[in-house]
Design goal:
The complex is a heterodimer of chains A (about 375) and B (about 550). Chain A is of the alpha+beta class and about 375 residues long. Chain A has a domain of about 210 residues: Glutamine Phosphoribosylpyrophosphate, subunit 1, domain 1 (4-Layer Sandwich), CATH 3.60.20. In chain A, about 30% of the residues lie in helices and about 30% in strands. Chain B has two domains: about 100 residues, 2-Layer Sandwich (Alpha-Beta Plaits); about 325 residues, TIM Barrel (Alpha-Beta Barrel), CATH 3.20.20. Chain B has 17 helices and 21 strands. Classes of the chains: A alpha+beta (about 375), B alpha/beta (about 550). Chains A and B meet through α6 and α10 of A and α4 and α12 of B.
Chain lengths: ~375, ~550
């Protein structure tokens, strides 16, 4: 089973702090992959907050093709971190080329586009580049969005972290970090199958298996939304459902759990929002998951959340102190990352709960599905 | 018959008949119950002359003849009186002295059951034992990556939805604007399919209704039953139990005068309205209630004279195009109940099903589509229609579900599948397979008659006389001497029994797949089959 660890901090921190926590949970992952999502970046990227950042892995030819492609679209590179490791990669990790995060200035007239249109175009560009890369094998693209870097690689998280010298470059220190140590289960090792998954500012990672994957995947694919594709992993649908909930339906993240694990009819009958929840349960029936999963995600604006399937077969814990909070699939990871917290305030969300920590990193907000929802409509 | 007498082409011997009576002279008590119970008078009292040659030992005395008479059972060989294999003779025999045996090699009768130029008509099912649904396995069993659930202890949500379910965007918009929402019913995914009051005996109907009411009221299972085309008893129309009933309207409109007039007096709305355009067992053919069964009660409920055959037309006569027929009919029915009741069509599975479906996807009032495959069946029809007309349900349903997936409406328009579910007794497995291929619910008829009332019919052409009112179990007869054999209370008990056992079995299937919080509609990755072509056609895994 994959191990998950996430940090949300008021001040930028090194991604290695999350990787170290994953290393403590090592017995739960087999080192077949690691994924990192960084948001709330510091340094030069912080000054380019509006500029979409492309992250991925490129060969020399790939970088040249990328330059051509972005120029054709009117995007100009403003700042980039290109890291081509000198030494040999760790055992099991292929030699790839340059790990890149490039911030671009947007073309003229971009500001006249609606926010939705801007988002859709950025997603389409990421998909175009991914497709170009799949055809020739010279590039892999994980995200293209402002204030966002996603890194994915095959191998042991700690070894990869050291190999990529994640600790040294303060320019990739971030306020919100999602990190996943992969346990390869059903699907062949494929970088695009590594978590966290990302679409238009919404990122999430999941452990466990998604038994309702096929009907959910078919439903998302048929929504006609740019970017609802890929699905090399059964966990990618969790990200897209979160995106669909918040961006497409315009609902608060607290409605997410009502979509993926709706209350039973008898519970809904007692709920103050019963009419709304009945409708939501029926119309989003195809998005009901059956677990067992722990989902940790991050939303535009910097809110981080954790929630669980209804069976609650997967553990998950949230704890921390003023200024920094950790979301972990195991308590040992949290102990390693934030040892000096008040452990009595740790919270393990149960089958009805969603946990949210805001970007101010002041407190853990616990929401139960039985609570009244904020006004949705 | 003496050996030098002329014979006709249709002169048959017992060996020519598919069902041959085996009678044991030593065990027979000559009580006569078997001959009196036989629904087709296939056996009669036989007076047999027996000659015995007595040959003494030695040569002094000559052999002599002794003639004696004994009584027993004689099987008629006239095709009109051919044994149907129901075995009621055996059931009533105190000594187990008689029973019909099927002789697979005796096919002569098949060529002679069209006397007077009338091809064979019968009741029952498609007489074929093959079942693709039985071949489908559930093979995505959760092992260590995802612990399998405990079917006995875990909480399961098995209910499904019938009605037009809005997309999430439409639904939120509708809530915000306080607009009209299509009616949606939450029901149990196993529906008792349309078998009319008239096709079924009053006792059978009452038993089914009581069973359904018990399941709902006492066990909290929202089971629904379709009336079939034949109206609905007036008291039921005016009772609170109507909400468990799906009223069917078909091309003969039988009973609808009564229903329409009862609308102002209805205490509750019916569950749904099913517009029957076709049924799987005899696609392109209307319903057929033969004159034998149209007695005073049936005639009154249907609003027709007594003693005449009631063949429904093959199509609804008032309409001439699919657009008109589907849209107009759905609209009219919706309007009759103030747009509070889901209305959906039922069609025979056919290569034209997709055209109907595509039409429905554009009709915001269409509440679903019921598709009835060729297998199974309970209706009365020509033998050729039952055995050779129609389309298997699996691929037809799958095509329709995939078409909905393509347009993104797989949650909006529920598909109800029927036709051969549980034909070999594997009700839960067949139902689960169809649900995972994309059905929101399944409907069964034949299984209900077999499990709920002890119908003797089989796919080996056993009994199959439902059409002419002589059902030996009283299930499909309108003759009080026959239907009083059936105790409605016991039918209700059996209905509850098989629903409860279905419920347990369906959990035993979906729990190991790791599913519990919603019915796994369209979870095709769980299915496998050892037939490569079928796997490819259905889009499921090929496993050997």
């Amino acid at each position: 089973m994959c191990r998950l660890f996430a940090l949300t901090s008021r001040d930028p921190i090194s991604p290695m702090r999350a990787i170290d926590a994953l290393n403590v949970m090592k017995e739960g992952h087999d080192g077949s992959g690691v994924g990192l999502y960084l948001n709330g970046l510091s340094g030069p990227f912080e000054e380019l907050k509006e500029c979409p950042i492309l992250s991925g892995i490129f060969t020399e030819a790939g970088l040249r093709r990328l330059d051509q492609y972005s120029m054709d679209k009117g995007f100009k590179s403003k700042f980039s971190i290109l890291y081509a490791p000198d030494g040999p990669p760790p055992v099991g990790t292929p030699v790839r080329g340059t790990y890149a995060a490039i911030a671009y200035s947007v073309p003229k007239g971009w500001e006249n586009l609606s926010e939705a249109e801007q988002g859709s175009r950025l997603v389409q560009m990421r998909l175009d580049l991914k497709k170009m890369g799949e055809e020739s094998g010279d590039m892999m693209v994980f995200s293209f969005w402002p204030d966002t870097i996603v890194i994915k690689e095959v191998g042991d998280p700690l070894e990869i972290g050291e190999f990529l010298q994640l600790d040294r470059n303060k320019d990739i220190y971030a306020r919100r970090i999602l990190a996943q140590g992969r346990q390869n289960t059903n699907y062949a090792i494929n970088l695009y199958a590594c978590h966290p998954f990302f679409i238009e500012g919404v990122a999430s990672m999941t452990n466990g298996e998604n038994t309702a994957f096929i009907p959910i995947k078919e439903y998302l694919q048929s929504r006609n939304i740019t970017g609802y594709s890929g699905y090399q992993s059964d966990s990618e649908v969790f990200t897209h459902i979160a995106h669909y909930t918040t961006k497409r339906l315009g609902l608060d993240i607290r409605a997410y759990k009502h979509i993926i694990t709706p209350l039973s009819d008898s519970e809904i009958a007692e709920h103050p929002d019963r009419a709304f929840l009945t409708e939501l349960k029926r119309s989003c029936r195809k998005l009901i998951i059956d677990g067992p999963n722990c989902v940790i995600g991050c939303l535009p604006g910097g809110r981080m959340f954790m929630t669980q399937d209804r069976k609650k077969f997967r553990p998950g814990i949230v704890g921390g102190k003023d200024g920094i909070f950790g979301f972990s699939s195991e308590v040992c990871g949290l102990n390693a990352a934030i040892p000096d917290r008040d452990k009595s305030k740790d919270f393990q969300p149960m089958h009805l709960d969603t946990v949210i920590v805001g970007p101010d990193c002041k407190e853990i907000i616990q929401c139960s599905q039985t609570d009244q929802l904020p006004r949705q409509l | 018959m003496l050996s030098d007498r002329p014979i006709t082409p249709s002169t048959l011997g017992v060996k020519d008949l598919p069902w041959q009576i085996k009678w044991d002279k030593d065990l027979c008590t000559q009580c006569g119950r078997c001959t009196s119970v036989c629904p087709v008078s296939a056996i009669e009292l036989g007076v047999f002359r027996k000659r015995t040659i007595v040959t003494p030992a030695g040569l002094r005395k000559k052999p002599s003849n002794e003639h004696s008479i004994f009584y027993g059972i004689r099987q008629k060989t006239d095709p009109a009186y051919g044994c149907i294999g129901c075995s009621m003779c055996n059931m009533v025999c105190p000594n187990n002295a008689i029973q019909p045996n099927r002789d697979e090699g005796s096919t002569t009768m098949k060529f002679h059951n069209d006397r007077g130029g009338q091809p064979r008509t019968r009741g029952g099912r498609r007489n074929s034992e093959e079942s693709l649904l039985d071949q489908i396995k559930f093979m995505r069993i959760s092992m260590l990556t995802d612990p399998a659930l405990d079917a006995g202890r875990h909480e399961f949500s098995l209910n499904t939805l019938i009605g037009r379910i809005q997309s999430p965007e439409e639904s939120l918009k509708c809530m915000a604007e306080n607009g009209w929402k299509p009616p949606v019913r939450e029901i149990y995914p196993l529906i008792i399919g349309g078998m009319s009051f008239g096709a079924l005996s009053p006792n059978m109907w009452e038993g089914l209704q009581m069973g359904v009411a018990y399941l709902n009221e006492e066990l909290g299972m929202p089971v629904r039953i379709s009336t079939g085309e034949g109206g609905c008893p007036p008291r039921l129309l005016r009772s609170k139990f109507l909400k468990y009933v799906i009223l069917q309207i078909a091309s003969g409109y039988f009973g609808w005068d009564e229903i329409i007039h009862a609308i102002p007096e209805m205490k509750v709305d019916p569950c749904a309205i099913e517009i029957k355009y076709g049924q799987g067992a005899k696609p392109g053919d209307g319903g057929l209630l033969m004159w034998h069964k149209v007695n005073k009660l049936i005639a009154a409920i249907r609003g027709v004279p007594r003693g005449i055959s009631l063949p429904s037309p093959p199509t609804h006569q008032t309409q001439y195009s699919i657009e008109e027929s589907v849209a107009k009919m759905i609209q009219s029915m919706s309007m009759a109940w103030g747009f509070r009741v889901p209305v959906y069509p039922k069609i025979s599975a056919s290569s034209t099903s997709l055209a109907v479906l595509n039409n429905l996807t554009r009709n915001p009032y269409a509440a679903g589509l019921a598709i009835d495959g060729e297998d199974g069946g309970t209706g009365a029809a020509y033998n050729v229609s039952m055995n050779h007309m129609g389309h298997p349900i699996a691929s037809n349903l799958r095509d329709c579900y995939n078409a909905l997936v393509t347009t993104g409406q797989q949650n909006e328009l529920p598909l109800i599948a029927g036709g051969g579910i549980g034909k070999s007794g594997n009700l839960a497995a067949n139902a689960a397979a169809l649900i995972m291929l994309g059905a929101s619910a399944v409907q069964v008829g034949k299984y209900v008659m077999q499990a709920g009332a002890g119908c003797l019919g089989s796919e080996k052409d056993r009994c199959n006389v439902c059409n002419i009112g002589i059902c030996p179990k009283g299930i499909t007869s309108q003759d009080p001497r026959l239907y009083r054999r059936l105790d409605p209370e016991k039918v209700a008990e059996r209905v509850v029994d098989f629903y409860l056992s279905f419920d347990t079995e369906i959990k035993k299937i979906i729990a190991p797949l790791g599913r519990s919080s919603s019915l796994p509609i369209g979870m095709s990755d769980a299915l496998g089959i050892s037939d490569r072509d079928a796997a490819e056609r259905l889009g499921i895994k090929y496993v050997v």
